Amino acid sequence: MKPYSKYFEKIRIRPDPKAEAKARAPRCQWDGCEEAGLHRAPVGRHKEGEYFCFCVDHAREYNKNYNYFSGLNDTEIARYQKEALTGHRPTWKISGSGTARAAPDYSPLRSGRAGYHNRMGDPFNLFGERREAAQTRQRRLRPLEAKALETLGLGAQATGEEIKARYKSLVKRHHPDANGGDRGSEDRLRNVLEAYRLLKQAGFC
Question: Residue 43's Cα: distance from chain center in Å?
Answer without folding.
Answer: 35
